[in-house]
Amino acid sequence: MEVAVKPESAAIRKHRPGFWQAGVLLSALLLALPVIVVFSFVFVPAGEVWRHLVDTVLADYLSNSLLLVVGVAIGVLLLGIPTAWVTTVYEFPGRRLFEWALLLPLAIPAYIIAYTYTGLLDFSGPVQMLLRSVFGWTAGEYAFPEVRSLGGAVLMLSLVLYPYVYMMSRASFLSQSLSMLEAGRVLGAGPWRVFFKLTLPLARPAVVTGVSLALMETLADYGTVQYFGIATFTTGIFRTWFGLNDSAAAAQLAALLMSFVFVLILLEQHSRRRLRFFQTSGRYRHLQRHRLYGYRKWSVVLLCLLPLTFGFLIPAGQLLVWALSIAEETLDQRFFLLVGHTLMLAVTAALITLTLALFLGYGRRLFPSRRVNFAVRLSAMGYAIPGTVIAVGVMLPFAWLDNRIDDAMREFFGLSTGLMFSGTLFILLFAYAVRFLAVSVQSVESGLARVTPNMDDAARSLGYSPGRVLMKVHLPIMRGALFSALLLVFVDVLKELPATLILRPFNFNTLAVRAYELASDERLADSSVAALTIVAVGVIPVILLSRAVSRSGVRDATPT
Amino acid sequence: MQRPLELQQVDVAYGETPVVRSVSLILGAGEIGCLLGPSGCGKTTLLRAIAGFEPVRGGHILIRGEKVSRPGYTLVPEKRGIGMVFQDFALFPHLSVARNIEFGIAHLPAGQRRSRVEELLRLVELPNIGGCYPHELSGGQQQRVALIRALAPKPALLLLDEPFSSMDVELRESLAREVRRILRSEQTSALLVTHDQSEAFAMADRIAVMQQGSIRQWDCAYNLYHKPADRFVAGFIGQGVWLPLLRDTNHVLCSEFGPLFPNRVELPHRAASEAGDDPPLELLLRPDDVVYLEDGLHCEVIEKSFRGADILYRLRLPSGTDILYITKGHNDLPVGATIPVAIKMNELVLFTAE
To answer: Which residues touch A391 (CB under 8 Å, ≥6 apart)?
Structure first.
């Protein structure tokens, strides 16, 4: 009997070598298109509008964006690191709950928390009403900080973005070799010196990664700054495009914004590399949490309760109160149509990105080469690119293409095809693929990493064909990863605002767009049902995330 | 000179589970001691209690005569004036080798720090690696850096927690001897924890064999091997089998090889106390106690393992009992062959049969 045992990869490589590689390179090129387009406008000579922008608002965009970034950086550090530290090393009431609950604010998009607090804190909101009725003040008699300000935006963004820092630094604290910290103690350093000389410097790459993720989101934010009336790059791109009707100037603004984002990407990737380099060798013993008593116990509880309360409990509670008050009028057929649209869109986008991610992931596994590696990394770059920039970057080429096709069809067949790409859901789905592919790629690759090449070979040597290896070995092992890839993109699409706002077909709404529109019309309560739906769905990936975080964590101390 | 370490009936527990039970031990100045035992015997816990990472439930720990642990009080590790070498070396990955070594002597002026670092690096014959980072070093180099980092503040006592467990077997013994040389030249007393006998033998002056949280014997390597205090130590240290003994009509102890004491009737005192009068006894027979003798007992070769310089045989006595026999590598016998052997031993190790 002849048994030719060939590794699956070799077999496929032999059959279609060019097809796959070319496909990977082509899709990477397509997905990088928005960025390439946006940057190409740097070489377009600056027009009238651009000069106008430079003279008037560009300085504001720069300074506001910069202040926002610096403020949020400080905010997420102050909220993220202490909570990560105390939940790692101390034992106190509710510690297990806080471990995952501190991630919950991540479920609330910044624009939703922004208008929730506006509703709570503005003149006619419950807080000021209460103050007036308790102290008998009247309007104008007292000073109350304005939520809709730069400071307010910093606070809002920090409250929902600190979990990135919390998560990254906690993972780093947990992974630090306990004996290394003990070595510090034996060498004469007290607990504080160990924290500042060893723990924190070692966590620095992780902290920097977390901060740069939070800042990417800050730069990408459109809903909050627009609602608070702060002129930043994202609002500027919108205004230039739709207000001043100059797509070239908008693209140039987008290019400028992108260069800031690239700095963050470089920072993040550099830190991730250092993270590996800083990894201390495996843990020999479990961490033993120090039990706190008395006032120290309660101050730590308070420390954890603070970001959780203001970042999740209060805004989610307010949304719930509003939603209950208007549920009857809002939960009508139009609302369910809206939900249907949104679900359809999110599911389609999730499936498309997963397919692409599988294609790229297997491409990288079967044909590892520098070109393919680079292509995959390039196509996964979109996670850092603000939705507004992607919108500009896809709109320009596809609108151009539509016009060319339309012209040609009219010339030859005398019929107008209209906006085949840019006027349909196609362009929106394309933008989602660009923006969220990284999420799927990451899940797929972590799943694929669990299927070692030797498993392929083992299954083949036991008589399985490549197809059956895929079904019987790969699929069962990767099922969880594939599911989370779908889920994460689904939720991200649900929350996405700026790109959807620009690219959606006429009269096509999603929950996020609807919530935003109603809030912009000062109909805060009316928007709450849509907003609450987004938050509720957003909690799902947070739970998944928290499970991953606690899995990497420690159990209660056991002796060795 | 003051005793670097004294343990007085130390008890340590995790929650309700006692891990170390009433351990007492005195380590002399300049002495290198070892806690040896199977995993889970409490040796690492005891070491951590000495370092100040675990509180004691009972007894006292004294370092240089100062009481550093007693029930309800644990002096923090950084104030104990000890050094510790960890199983995973625990080098600080973000600091260079020199900065790692300087960590514990940060209070010294820069000049003194630098000269101490240089002196220590020379001591381990790695004079040029001060600027390297830990991940650039080999395992053996990391080990040496971890050692001199712990020695830099000139601790009264050095604790080593399985310091060679992540090393290749071939490296272990040579490293253990080198560490011994370094400790001698720094005149540091040390306590080592290991589960590996050859490591313990290569490094330590005195070894505490631990089982289930208590010390069974605190002695030099020779005595552990040849004069074990109980059956556990006898079985744990070295190889050997238990040979059943009988009494003949004259009440003379005999093994299958004949009377144990052809010239004496009395039992040696060690065994006498335990043996009492009647209970059956067993003799610990090490492979090196068995010798080839032309008119000896004919045994069958059951198993052999060739080990280069020597061969270890498992032989079956006519009664069916198996014994071990070690001989030079060129005395090659096939399995199934017979060989006449006898026993020849200086120290008789007798315990009551279990």
So the answer is: A431, A498, A499, A502, A503
CA end-to-end span of chain A, whole Å? 53
Preferred mutation among A187, A202, A556 to probe B, highest tally of B CBs within 10 A: A187
**Residue B279: what residue type?**
P
Query: Domain map of chain A by residue range?
Result: 46-107+149-269+288-310
Identity of the amino acid at A374? F
Of the candidates B19, B80, B150, the beta carbon closest to that of A559 is on B19
- B86, B89, B94 ranked by CB distance to A202: nearest: B94
pLDDT at position B58: 93
Output the six-digit token pair for B190: 């040390």
Q: What is the pLDDT of residues A118-129, one digit of tens each?
A: 888 887 788 888
CA distance B241 to B322: 8
**How many residues in total does chain B contain?**
354
B93 touches chain A (CB under 8 A): yes
User: Quick one: pLDDT at residue B216?
Assistant: 93
The pTM is what? 0.79
Check CB contact under 8 Å for A180 and B53: no
Tell me which residue in B89, B93, B104 faces A188 most closely, judged by beta carbons. B104
Give the closest residue to B46 by CA, choosing from B197, B231, B193, B226.
Answer: B193
Distance CA B147, CA B161 (A): 11
Looking at the complex, report in whole angstroms how far the Cα of residue A194 sits from the nearest Cα belonging to chain B: 11
Query: What would the two tokens of residue A59 be?
Result: 């300085």
CATH label, A46-107+149-269+288-310, candidates 3.20.20.80, 1.10.3720.10, 3.90.1170.50, 1.10.10.10:
1.10.3720.10
B111 and B120 Cβ atoms separated by less than 8 Å: no
Residue A554's pLDDT is 41
Partner residues linked to B36 by β-bridges: B194, B209
Higher per-residue confidence, A47 vs A117: A117
pLDDT value for B1: 58
Q: Is A469 exposed, middle or buried (0-12, 13-18, 19+ CB in 10 A)?
A: buried
